[in-house]
Design a protein that fits this description.
330 residues; Rossmann fold; 12 strands; 16% strand; binds nicotinamide-adenine-dinucleotide
Length: 330
């Protein structure tokens, strides 16, 4: 991947968020230039996974994707070539304030595509975060593929689905290509908000020796964040034309198995992590044949390894007095 990324300029909206921090890290590791565009100027999640010298290599623009005038001058100033759009509000925020959710998640995405359209062809493709939430509950007896009809059951899922439609129109009418990726339960250091953040919070709680209750059970499609980040980058440099939407698939595991892995990594935490019986209202297994066909082999960190890496990093942060536990109170 380094050959396609080295020296190239990537603009990442939402780069101070969880997935954004990891995409930033992987891009910097691969020699890219990273322009962070985020409402939140605080790089606290970057600091959890990189050192100060690395964090200082990012160019930070504090801005709002809902502002139509904000992005075009940033694309121009930095000569942006690749765009990964991750800024967004999650399920609980969209539920509490659907108007704001639509502004950020839908209008914000339109503003990103508009900025690409105005770039005079320099930005050829937008890679954006859609979500497995475009599927409501439903089919769970087999892996869900892109041929299955999305029936979102949350405002958040509806907004993500609207973006997939908008992306298609931007290609048909303006020639802006795109790749929408649909992650489900992404885990790793920096995940701190939304119901699917509970497994990561449970890992943190175990490191701290505290009890934690995961608010869902059953099985879910679980993906380690470094793999998610690499897939976004692969899509950005892929050369794909058209408006593509792909499911992502990590490993479909029972929440009880996640708890077992946590206890294997920290035997002293046995019994501290419990979970609800009710599964998430999203199918638990996704078929990723389409993206593998388009992009080739994708990284796939086994559950045991991802859990161990996450808990090792939490342990290190704790030993440095930098393990923020405020998210465990939510
Ligand atoms: N984490 C997951 O498991 C998961 C699953 C499916 C989809 N997604 C999607 O992936 C994307 C990234 O997810 P995440 O977990 O990193 O989310 P996150 O909440 O950690 O990060 C989102 C970032 O967007 C920024 N942001 C919010 N409103 C903004 C605005 N108006 N202008 C500019 N920046 C703004 C926030 O400051 C934050 O840094 C989101 O679009 C999310 O919906 C995430």
């Amino acid at each position: 991947m380094a050959a396609e990324t080295k020296g190239k300029t990537f603009l990442l909206t939402g780069a101070h968020g969880f997935i954004g921090a990891w995409v930033t890290k992987r891009l910097l590791d691969a020699g890219a230039r990273v322009v962070v565009f985020d409402l939140d100027a605080d790089p606290r999640r970057l600091r959890l996974i990189m050192d100060e010298a690395e964090v200082a290599r990012t160019k930070v623009v504090a801005g709002d994707v809902t502002d139509p005038k904000a992005l075009p001058p940033v694309f121009e100033e930095f000569g942006v070539e690749h765009v990964i759009h991750l800024a967004g509000l999650q399920v609980p925020t969209c539920r509490a304030d659907p108007r704001l959710g639509a502004m950020v998640n839908v209008v914000g995405t339109i503003n990103v595509f508009e900025a690409a359209r105005l770039s005079g062809g320099r930005v050829k493709r937008i890679v954006y975060a859609s979500s497995a939430a475009v599927y409501g509950s439903g089919e769970d007896s087999r892996a869900v593929s892109e041929r299955d009809e999305p029936q979102p059951s949350t405002h958040y899922g509806v907004f993500k689905r609207a973006n997939e439609g908008g992306a298609r129109v931007y290609y048909l009418e303006q020639g802006v290509s795109s790749v929408g990726l649909r992650p489900l339960t992404v885990y790793g250091v920096g995940r701190d908000f939304g119901i699917t953040s509970d497994p990561t919070k449970a890992m943190k709680a175990a490191v701290l020796g505290r009890p934690f209750h995961i608010r869902f059970g059953g099985r879910t499609d679980f993906q380690y964040v470094a793999d998610t980040a690499d897939t976004f980058i692969r899509a950005a440099v892929s050369g794909l034309e058209g408006a593509h939407v792909f499911n992502l698939h990590g490993e479909t595991v029972a929440v009880s198995d996640v708890v077992l892995e946590i206890e294997r990594a920290r035997p002293d935490a046995r019994g501290l992590v419990t979970f609800e019986d009710a599964p998430l209202a999203i199918p638990s297994e996704f078929d990723d044949a389409a993206i593998r066909q388009a992009l080739g082999r994708l990284p796939s960190t086994p559950l045991a390894e991802g859990v161990r890496a996450t808990m090792e990093r939490f342990t290190q942060l704790q030993s440095e007095g930098r393990l923020d536990a405020s998210d465990l109170e939510q």
